[in-house]
Amino acid sequence: MQMVRITALAVASVFYSPLAVMAEDAPQAPQSLQPFAEFIGGIAASQTGAAASTTPAVASARSAPTQAQSYLASLYASVDAKAVKHSFVDANDTAFDCIPIMQQPALQGSKEPLPTPPDIPKGISRAASADGQAKATNLSAAETDRFGNAMACAEGAIPMARVTPEQIGRFASLQEFFRKSPDGAGLPQRAANRQAPVPATHRYAHAYQEVNNVGGHSLLNLWKPAVAASQIFSLSQHWYVGGNGAGLQTAETGWQVYPKFYNTPKPVFFIYWTADGYTNTGCYNLTCAAFVQTNNSWAVGGALKPWSTSPKKQVVLELSYFLFQGRWWLYVNGTAAANAIGYYPATLYKGGAMSVGAQEIDYGGEVVGTKSWPPMGSGKFASLGFGKAAYQSDIYYFPPAGANVPANLTVSQDWPWAYTGSFSYLNSPNFSTLFFGGPGGKR
Q1: How far apart are CA 437 and CA 378, in angstroms?
Q2: Are the CB atoms for 362 and 236 separated by under 8 Å?
Q3: φ/ψ (deg, to 5) at 10
Q4: Are residues 373 and 203 in contact, defined by beta-carbon separation less than 8 angstroms?
Q5: Do 144 and 87 touch, CB atoms closer than 8 A?
Q6: Where are the domains of the chain?
Q7: What tens digit of pLDDT does each residue of 322-335 get?
Q8: What average pLDDT does this structure show over 4-20?
Q9: In terms of DSSP H, where are the helices of 114-262?
């Protein structure tokens, strides 16, 4: 990706806002959601210079499309605006458009039938670790947004977060927008040295295992850590990792508080990938032609609710990846085929390690800051245990030969005065659990 600076003029004047309505000279609170066709029309107009303008400067910007404008035009190139019948905003006020499945960016209008996901392999008998804990939710056809729109898509369409110039404009370049964080890398360092040194802005409390696998599973305890304006993000996630150095490859998923990207202080469900050590490939969610969403029950990049607030109110998000017939399938809140929401094609990895499997599993927390670092998880240290510290539980992986195996993880904590981790088998291997987190701060 070529670096490109996005000017405030381009962001403020060249495109329409995702929420319609504002007079150019007198912004006001939006009263309705801008129809998708109008949003796309604004992008098309900015590409051709045909949009109306009140100033010569705006007209000049519109007549010379930026790389960001070209990216947006390309992202939506396969979408027929007339076929998008419904849009809504989620609890974070992110606009979602119901895009016909075959018109999403990763399929580009393909005529091939969608593949059928498998049930996740059965192996050891595990107790229901989530008993007594609420499951996080994301969308519900029974709910309406603040404009009265049903918060769900009809059969045959998937909810795609509307990528706007305002969102891109919060980053110094298009390359920064695509990266895991503005400074790039997103995988913690460890003895195995699967990547170049991690930037000093990143901190981790996590646990990993070097083992050949085709995916894995855990229940992620959901919290809402406070990320200040001077900080970047706080998350809990899975990493499935292959290769090393410039050939390092990942498939990732979890929850994240990343105000600069999502324009909200609340937790969001996310996915990410890279095929070259976070250098020139990778993107969040559906912001590039990578992940194929096949199930409309979840909004990737959308709000998660509720979150944990006390020992008596614990909330989990169940996530799994499973490589099957050349596709890294993602499962949410269950392991049956019906819980698979889509996949990363193994061809994304261009014959690299993750084309056929991963060599490492990794679970835990990551934060990014500059002069100070945000809380991780609940903001409490791992030693405080269940109900207070954040955790991931029921952690297991899928060997290439089949079935599943409880993880046996090695804890790594690179800033133990601010973030800690501890791994154990609670009662039995069926309850493999990682506690992690901490308050963060300055150093």
Answers
A1: 7
A2: no
A3: -65, -40
A4: yes
A5: no
A6: 1-114+157-176, 183-437
A7: 999 999 999 999 99
A8: 36
A9: 165-168, 174-178, 259-262
